[in-house]
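Side project, low priority. Logging it here so it doesn't get lost.
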Amino acid sequence: MIRPDWANAVERPIRIGIATDLTGALGFAGNTDANVARMVVNDINETGGLLGRPIELLIEDTASNESVAIGNVRKLIQRDKVDLVLGGIASSMRNAIKDIIISRGKTLYIYPQADEGKECTPYLFCTGPVPAQNCDRFIPWLIKNGGKRFALPGSNYVWPQTINAYARKVIESSGGEVVFEEYYPLDQIDFSATVSRITSNKVDVVFNSVIPPLASAPSSNSSMKQASPGMGDSWAASTTTRTRSK
């Protein structure tokens, strides 16, 4: 049986690489990821480490930019020789960096975000929900309870496009209707035109896959986040949280 290099290096710390967006459009989320990783690793090391070995954390910025990410992730693999990489926020980022991580067949890659459910790659583990888990029970329940007219706003990359395509099939097969589907740049924070479409078309359900969900950047509070009071009895449903307007 072939053992990976790290299994024979008992004295060496377990090296975990975090590849996340410390800067760029998704920097607010990536910094949260990095801070949580630091907290967890500190807790583990303070209680004796993992399997008797300390964990060494190495963090690289993917910068919401695939070209930058490729170079920085390569540092984790070639220079730092990490045993495991966690990270990537957008699915497009996962696709950009995965081959660099797993190509040698020695480094594991864990992608902890929601994904399209189509990965079947050795050494790559996707641990987030797939479209079926978001849609198969929730959408029919919404339609049964009166939410039949759907808007599908999403960020312009592979995951929102994939989940919306899946959601559309479930909506239409369950007797609902997609009123509109549209996509926005990752850094967009003004959704006033979208809110106008939602209200003027009497949409029942906003099935949101905008990243950040409902435009959580501080300066965006005037658009989709504040839409709820003016959206009457429509539902606002993200793929991670669900709330109903009063």
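Brief comment: The chain has two domains: 5-128, 132-244.
Revisit when time allows.
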